Amino acid sequence: MERILIKTHQLTKRYGPVSVVKGLNLEVKGGEIFGFLGPNGAGKTTTIKMLTGLLDPSEGEAFICDYDISKQPTKAKALMAYVPDQPKLYGKLSAREFLYLISALYRVPKDVMKERAEQLLGMFGLRDRADELLEGYSHGMRQKVVLASALIHQPKVILLDEPTVGLDPASARLLKDVLQELARQGAAVFVSTHILEIAERMCHRVAILKDGQLIAQGSPEELRQKVGHGGESLEDIFLELTGGNENADLIKSLEEG
Ligand SMILES: Nc1ncnc2c1ncn2[C@@H]1O[C@H](COP(=O)(O)OP(=O)(O)OP(=O)(O)O)[C@@H](O)[C@H]1O
Question: ABC transporter domain spans which residues (predicted)?
Answer without folding.
Answer: 6-236
